[in-house]
């Protein structure tokens, strides 16, 4: 089968939003080349770990980010390019900088497409306890506390290494004690649902806006036996969802978090946690004020680069 690669050159802050746009148009997977990821590599203490790495020899973006998506031959890409371009440019309405927002397409054969994933993705320890492992890599935990999240980047929105995802994972490590009920809103690759199960959550329900995202998440869930009982379905945020959850997690844009706040409040019991990420610095205060206005108590804010995560809790009468 032949594939078409569609690449959007944008900013680091727009990576998650652009990835979501491409996946909703039928992309089989996305590849992210973000200059900030290479800055972290450059700051790594490789010599102390016995490794010799010249980061500058690795091909990478010099500024901003490039999000590349892969479409099968069953999708006529020229037809969807104008709509994708318009949606990417419209992200400025949500306060995201997207320039230059250029869109380019290239034909790719199946062999090269498959090889591309394996060239760029390797196991990465994303938090103290959680390590993301590409499905083709053989990797053994380095300690009894290390938990693996197996992903196929060819199916996913990302590999779990983006700051917004890391913030979500760190927050989940903070609040999970074991046996909880959790809802993952905007599940994407399913990485947060898998992490929740690895950290001991009992029941997990995962939702995303359309069936393309749901199918992508399900394939990754299937790669992780611990997540075999996760229920994933298409849904618009938490509209129509019933049944309480002890933890609700959402790694989505700040503007989408806003209408989610009252929905989460209604489904959380007293002392339940509402974990949000995907919040750009300029929007953080708006999200925090909206959550406090709803009645949430802000337990902690987390920051990584230009991104924020918020851990909020529904207080009881004595709090």
UniProtKB/TrEMBL annotation:
Xref: PANTHER family: ELECTRON TRANSFER FLAVOPROTEIN BETA SUBUNIT LYSINE METHYLTRANSFERASE
Reaction catalyzed:
L-lysyl-[protein] + 3 S-adenosyl-L-methionine = N(6),N(6),N(6)-trimethyl-L-lysyl-[protein] + 3 S-adenosyl-L-homocysteine + 3 H(+)
**What does the entry list as the binding residues for S-adenosyl-L-methionine?**
165, 186, 208, 251
Top enzyme class? transferase
* Keyword Disulfide bond found: no
Q: Which family does the record claim for this protein? A: Belongs to the methyltransferase superfamily. PrmA family.
- What are the BP-aspect GO terms? methylation
Q: What does this protein do?
A: Methylates ribosomal protein L11.
Organism for this UniProt entry: Secundilactobacillus paracollinoides
Record's InterPro entries?
Ribosomal_L11_MeTrfase_PrmA (IPR050078), Ribosomal_PrmA_MeTrfase (IPR004498), SAM-dependent_MTases_sf (IPR029063)
Lipid metabolism is among the record's keywords: no
> Which Gene3D superfamilies did the record assign?
Vaccinia Virus protein VP39
Q: GO CC terms on record?
A: cytoplasm; ribosome
Q: Which UniProt keywords apply?
A: Cytoplasm, Methyltransferase, Ribonucleoprotein, Ribosomal protein, S-adenosyl-L-methionine, Transferase
Taking the first listed entry, what is the main subcellular location of this protein, grouped into a coarse class?
cytoplasm
Q: Which GO terms describe its molecular function?
A: protein-lysine N-methyltransferase activity
Its Enzyme Commission number(s) read 2.1.1.-
What this protein is called in its record is: Ribosomal protein L11 methyltransferase
